[in-house]
Amino acid sequence: MTNTIIRVAIHDLSRTVNGFVVKYGKADLKISSTMQRVIDDLTTLYGKRTSKSYGKFAVDEDRFPTEKHLRAYLNVQPSDFTTLTHKMMETLKAQAGYKGAATGGHVFFAHFEREERQYLLIVIVNEKLGASMTSDLDVQDVRHLDMDGFRFAGRINMTSWANGEERYIGFLKGKREVSEYFKEFLGCDTTVQNRRDTAELVQALMTFATNEGMDTPSKDDFLARAKTICERSAKAQEELSFEALANELSPQDPERLMTALADPDLCLNDGFVPDRRALGALVKFKGKTPTWSIEFNRDAITRGNVVFNQGENTLTLTGLPEDLTAQLRAEYNQDG
C-alpha cells in the first residue's frame, strides 16, 4: 500500500530545568525520497505495534483542542499545515508539563493518503548513538534517528472522523502514566466497550484463520484454543494482551498473528477484559428467521452433521436427537 504524503512538518520538544521548550522547524518540508522513506517506515512500524488503544475525540474542545485545530486545517483553503502543527505543539507542550514521566524529542507530523483515506500521523522520535566507517576504514560516532525505539505515536483517520465513525484515533498505550499525556494531547476518549472489543477480536481471529489457509480441523482447533485463552482472562477479569495471546495461540510464528491484530485499520483495542458472551462465535454458528432459530458448534461441520449447500443456500442436518425426531414424526403423522 502506497502512502501519498501531502504535508510533513518536524518540530522539537525539549525538556529543561524550567519546563518544556518548543523549537519549530520549517513551515512545509519538501517530500524528498528520504522523507518518503522515513514516513513510510514510521507508518509501518507504528502499524506493527500491538499495544494500541482506539477511540474518538473527547467532547470538551476547550480542554482537548486538537479536534478544533484539525477542523480548522481541513475547512480553510488553502489549508495551513504550519498553523495546525504549531497549535498542536502548544497542546503537546502543555500536556507534557502536567506529567512528570513525559519526555521530549523530534515530533513528526505527516498528513498522508492511502487507499483513498486520509490520515494524520504524529510520532515522537529520539536520537541514539551509532557508528559509521570512515574513508580510511576506521569507525566514528554518529547520531541518527532511533526509528525502532519510539514510544509515543498516534494516528488520526481523518476520513473516518469526517464520516462520523465511532473509532478513528489510535495511539500507543505503553505504560499508563507515561502514555497518558500523549492520549490527552490527541484529545482521545477511549471509553472501553468490552463486548464490542471482544466481538471485533473474534472476527479478526476468524479472518486470520481463513487468510492463513487453515484446513477445517486446524481452523476449529485454532479458534477453540483462542476461546479457551480469552475465557481464562474473562474469568479472572484480567486484561487480554495481544502479544501474550499470539505467543500462546501461535507459538511457532506469533509475529504473523501479532501483525494481523495490530493492523491499525482494524482499530482493535489491546488490553481489554474479554466478554464471555461474545466468545461463543469462535466455536458456534447461529441464526434465526421469524419462524425458526438454529445454533450449532463448529465441529458439527467437521463431523458432517451439518452440511451447507452454497449453491442452493440450504442447510442439511443429520443425527437429529430422538426427542426432536419423535416430535417431528408425531406432527407429520398427524398431518398425514
Description of the molecule:
The protein is an alpha+beta fold and 336 residues long. It has helices at residues 33-48, 66-75, 81-98, 158-162, 176-186, 194-211, 216-236, 242-249, 254-262, 276-279, 299-302, 322-335, and strands at 4-16, 19-23, 52-57, 105-114, 117-125, 127-133, 139-145, 152-157, 169-172, 188-189, 284-288, 293-297, 306-309, 314-317. It starts with a strand and ends with a helix. β4 (105-114) and β5 form a beta hairpin. The mean pLDDT is 89. An eight-stranded antiparallel beta sheet has the order 2-1-4-5-8-9-3-10, with helices on both faces. Strands 6-7 form a two-stranded antiparallel ribbon. The chain has three domains: 4-189, no CATH class; 194-281, no CATH class; 286-335, no CATH class. The protein is 41% helix and 26% strand. It has twelve helices and 14 strands. The relative contact order is 0.12.
Short description:
This protein has twelve helices and 14 strands.
